[in-house]
Amino acid sequence: MPKPRLSVLHSHDDIPVDSAATKLTDWIPGASTEGLVEILKEIAAEFGLLHISYVSLDPHKSPDWAMLSSVVTYSKEWQRRYFLKKYFHIDPVIAKGRHALLPFDWDDLTLEDPNAAEMFEDAIAHGVGRYGLSIPVKSRPNGRSVVSYTCDSSREAWERFKGANMVRLQQLSALIDTAARAAAATSKLPPPEVRLSPSEEQCLIWAARGKTHQEIADISSFGPARVRSHLDTARHKLSCVNVTHAVAVAIARGIIPAAALRDSP
Q1: Is it the case that residue 98 has pLDDT exceeding 70?
Q2: Are 181 and 249 in contact (CB under 8 A)?
Q3: Domain 17-184: which CATH class?
Q4: How far is CA 169 from the centre of its chain?
Q5: Do residues 62 and 56 make contact, with C-beta atoms less than 8 angstroms apart?
Q6: CA nearest neighbour of 11 among 153, 205, 210, 207
Q7: Which of 83, 86, 121, 141 has its CA 20 to 30 A from that of 216?
Q8: Nearest residue to 72 via CA among 50, 51, 56, 48
Q9: 220-237 tens-digit pLDDT
């Protein structure tokens, strides 16, 4: 069994989200699941993470469909073991991901089922990572997925990483969801042409940079109510359920540049 490598997590200033966004958006036109796995491996390495995983939790699909449509960087050995032991049915990450609205740390999960606790021990032994963070993504009215990030750094480094980069990881998770759905679709992202007004585009770019309505209003000449209206209009034009999803779709379609995810100047 390969020895897990020690994660060296990147700091707030170093985390290359714009590079990750560019990799994903450049890849989408020729989308394939195999290609996405390689992209996620590159992103994980750039961030100093062990693994990144994506699981679709469509309530109308079977567990087998969810497992087959997942995109993960875990070893083939762990993927086979997870399937054969039917861990999907007892995995607390999956259970919480079906209903959670906010990101959650794996250490905060309740492990009342001893089988679930054993599953986590088995996962660590197979190089999944000692620490994990899962981010639910609600990308359409009945669509839900969960994107998870793992590492083997120290607890202190892991907490610093999460605290400094949570917004960036949420943005990245929405973009991964968009890319994974593109890979699964037979007609890769079949978008009708969408045109945002300059004001809608400006507000969405600043939202991509993590700014609040009030902060966008302070930067632009708009009031907070007008900012909210522009973002709502952009979201509806892009058929998205929230602004984070709208940012991901807009970047994937080239409506706003991937560089929008960089820190504000």
Answers
A1: yes
A2: no
A3: alpha beta
A4: 6
A5: no
A6: 153
A7: 141
A8: 51
A9: 888 999 999 999 999 999
pTM exceeds cut of 0.85? no
CATH 3.30.2350.10 fits 198-261, yes or no: no
What gap in Å lies between CA 87 and CA 55, rounded to an integer?
14
- Domain range list for the chain: 17-184, 198-261
Count of beta carbons in the 10 Å neighbourhood of residue 108: 8
Q: Are 249 and 182 in contact (CB under 8 A)?
A: no
- Please state, in angstroms and as integers, the Cα–Cα distance from residue 78 to each residue in 105, 138, 186, 262, following that order: 21, 27, 28, 34
Question: Measured between alpha carbons, how far apart are the two ends of the chain, in Å?
Answer: 46
Distance CA 188, CA 31 (A): 7
Average pLDDT over residues 72-85: 92
Q: Whole-angstrom Cα distance, residue 200 to residue 223?
A: 13
Alpha carbons 157 and 258: distance in angstroms, whole number: 27
CB of 181 closer than 8 Å to CB of 164? no
Q: Rounded distance, CA 151 to CA 7, Å?
A: 6
Query: Are the C-beta atoms of 8 and 160 separated by less than 8 Å?
Result: no
DSSP H helices in the chain = 17-27, 33-47, 63-68, 76-84, 92-97, 114-125, 155-184, 198-208, 213-219, 224-237, 243-252
Residue 172 tokens, joined: 């990245």
- Give the helix/strand (H/E) hosting 195: none
User: Following CA atoms 167, 151, 18, 212 in sequence, which dihedral angle do they give, to the nearest 10 degrees?
Assistant: 0
Per residue in 27-38, pLDDT (tens digit) is: 665 556 678 899
